[in-house]
Structures are given as C-alpha cells and as structure tokens.
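Key result, reporting period 2: structure in, sequence out.
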C-alpha cells in the first residue's frame, strides 16, 4: 500500500494478507475517501460562486448565506476525507477490524454532507467488516482436475472372492422340510366350583356410628369410614 500527498490520502493498493471481506471493505473505504474530497471541492466551488453572486448583487449577508453554507460543507467533507484514512483505512490495514467498523459509523452519518454518496460506500464498508469479524466455516478449495481417484464400491471388490468359493457350496442339496401338524386344540379346564352352602363365611360386625354390618377383617366402616 502506498500513501499520496504526504500520507494524507490512502493509496489504492490493498494488503494481500487481508481476508476477502476486509479487502472489499478497504476498497469501499478508499473510494468513500475520494468521494469526500471530491464533494468537498464541489461544495467549495458552489460556496464561492454563490458568495460572489451575492456580493455582485449587493444583497449583503443575506445573499452570501448560501455561499457560506457551501464553504462550511466543503470544510466538513475535506476533514472527513482526511480523517477517514486514519480512523478506518489504517485500522483495516493493521487488522483492527472492530475499531474500523465502529469508526465507520461516525463517517457514515457525516457522509450525508457529501450528497450521500460516501454514505452508500460506508454502509458497504460496515457490512463487509461485519462479515469479516463474524466466525465462518473454512472455505475448502475444490480438488484440482485429475487429482481425485474414484474408488470402486466395496461390493464390487468382494465379487471375485464370492466367485472363488468352492463349488460344493453351490451344489449342496437343499434341506428337506417335513410338515408337522399342529397339536389338537384342547380347551382349558374349568375350575370346579364349590358346592352351594360351602362358601367362605366371615365374621360380621356392626358399625357403632351408622349401624352398617361389614366383615371383621376390615378396619374401617365402608359406609361412613369410622374405625371399628
């Protein structure tokens, strides 16, 4: 990279070690600086012309107001172009992408003074620096032509081994299958029921609260829930 006019204006050469996104941001920042200086010259010409017209017509300070405004805008654009190199372009060249991204926001707002042309380029600078800072997956280069060797599928490599198998395995007599009938269905035996009158009998007690009878082995009355 080379500087011009005593190091005040950045050179157009981009350091080759910068990432691709940072190189694009550096190019946009360079042209934004050129537009700042160009718009500063345009504003200076407009301001001087309008001030001269106001003086020639004898309108006084009211006629020179627009001319003075143009000169002020020329100064703003000139200062912005000079400081854009130190705060954005030099930061990109030294790898300080975070600082360059933060500083680009300031000149992005001031870029409106240059008829908004530098603002458009600085928006691109901000976007490219954001992409350069964000983590990304590595970009793998494609294989050069003729360097990739296709490998045969594994099943094709096993075919010769299968062909070399003993022929006796292929001519082995098939096994004979004999039909075995299923066993006859036998119904499940029905459990014998106890004769009437021989059911289990439990001792019954009467609840003291509600008077309902319930088996003695129960601890609480099933009707009211009170203990026996």
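The corresponding designed sequence is given below.
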């Amino acid at each position: 990279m080379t500087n011009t006019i005593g190091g005040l204006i950045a050179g157009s050469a981009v350091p080759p070690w910068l990432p691709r996104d940072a190189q694009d941001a550096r190019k946009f920042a360079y042209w934004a600086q050129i537009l700042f200086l160009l718009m500063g010259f345009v504003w200076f010409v407009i301001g001087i012309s309008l001030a001269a017209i106001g003086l020639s017509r004898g309108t006084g300070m009211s006629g020179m107001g627009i001319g003075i405004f143009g000169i002020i805008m020329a100064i703003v654009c000139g200062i912005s172009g000079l400081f854009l190199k130190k705060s954005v372009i030099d930061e990109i060249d030294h790898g300080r992408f975070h600082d360059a991204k933060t500083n680009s926001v300031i000149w992005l707002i001031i870029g409106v003074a240059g008829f908004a042309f530098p603002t458009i380029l600085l928006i691109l600078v901000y976007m490219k620096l954001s992409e350069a800072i964000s983590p990304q997956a590595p970009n793998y280069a494609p294989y050069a032509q003729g360097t990739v060797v296709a490998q045969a599928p594994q099943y094709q490599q096993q075919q010769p081994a299968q062909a070399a198998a003993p022929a006796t395995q292929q001519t082995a007599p098939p096994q004979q299958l004999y039909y075995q009938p299923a066993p006859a269905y036998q119904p499940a035996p029905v459990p014998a029921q106890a004769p009437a009158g021989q059911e289990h009998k439990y001792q019954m007690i009467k609840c003291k609260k509600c008077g309902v009878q319930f088996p003695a082995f129960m601890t609480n009355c099933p009707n009211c829930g009170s203990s026996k």
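The helical segments are 20-57, 61-93, 97-110, 117-133, 154-157, 159-163, 167-170. Strands lie at 204-206, 213-215. This case is discussed further under Risks and Mitigation.
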